[in-house]
């Protein structure tokens, strides 16, 4: 088994957790390399579904060592709550390793996140209000607090005191919000230190040693390509590198160690939060009309499109091949995992966006200019659906209806990447492979 990076190829929520759950058992290490508890993935344990936001899916398998890399931002309270949840289900967290260089989300980060979004009003970015962005801001400003600092009470107290001189002034004078004391934060966070201490590690060294021993690593990405801080629909993005390149910087493993890049994409597209979305089928409650509004509601209902982390109703739209090609390029995708194909069984016909039109110009590539993206109109290719045919029991590509096969082959042609994993239902066994 090669070393693999698993990335979202759309705006997140593509089903990365299910695919990770499927393939993680074949790896020795499963590594989260970016993001924080703004990401949510669902894993299956027996007959239960567990929602995790920080701990890698590899925790489910005795062979795999789950690693939280240096590129992740960690809320200690959320981390400990997840550990207790898993241990309550009989899953040991003893193997979990956490980078000493991972940054810590502080209470003032969360308050600043909420206050900033509230102040933006209708122009809000659509963050999860969990302090992710402000934590990454401090990391970039070289004023952040890391896991290794949390485990040294003297250093932690000193750094909190220095941070509060600035953060309290901003909270009070800019936003009119509550301030924090050093003792308040230390009393809340220091008890987590002794729980985390046995798990802290020099994870870059750990992973490179593993590679030298011939071990296999799965790098588990969060969010999606179009939410990447550099390559996404800025400013409506997250604050970390969601693309495959982030796996190297967020783990300390060199890029030449990566053999395959698996992009996860739904058979349609969804997005949570604000920002451009060319193929969006606007819901009736948001002003949508006609067949598009009906189709959008149907996609949401059939796909159960509500965020794991936020609970928000996701925006839904037809498959966007422009995005698919872009994701393939910026990630260097070698494989695609196509999820939620079964949701499309509710439609007589399907649409695929093959290009955009804006101001008389046609774009067959993904334009980064906001002025284009916000006004882009999709150019659709229509294909016949397979309405009424149950595909949830398919065990191979050949088991699918002819129209479903044709749809997949067209997506492959348009993106230039083969779908080697196909999901036809929510359960673990409702997935098959094609040369994976």
From TrEMBL:
Pfam families reported for this sequence: Adenylsucc_synt
Necessary cofactors: Mg(2+)
Cofactor binding: number and manner: Binds 1 Mg(2+) ion per subunit.
One GO term describing the cellular component: cytoplasm
Primary location: cytoplasm
Principal EC category: ligase
Compartment list: Cytoplasm
Chain residues that bind Mg(2+): 13, 40
Gene3D superfamilies: Adenylosuccinate Synthetase, subunit A, domain 1, Adenylosuccinate Synthetase, subunit A, domain 2, Adenylosuccinate Synthetase, subunit A, domain 3
SMART domains named among the record's database cross-references: Adenylsucc_synt
Enzyme Commission no: 6.3.4.4
Sites where the protein binds substrate: 308-314
CDD domains membership: AdSS
Residues the entry annotates as binding GTP: 12-18, 40-42, 314, 340-342, 423-425
Record's keyword terms, sorted: Cytoplasm, GTP-binding, Ligase, Magnesium, Metal-binding, Nucleotide-binding, Purine biosynthesis
Family the UniProt entry places it in: Belongs to the adenylosuccinate synthetase family.
PANTHER family xref list: ADENYLOSUCCINATE SYNTHETASE (PTHR11846:SF0)
Subunit annotation: Homodimer.
Protein name in UniProt: Adenylosuccinate synthetase
Gene that produces this protein: purA
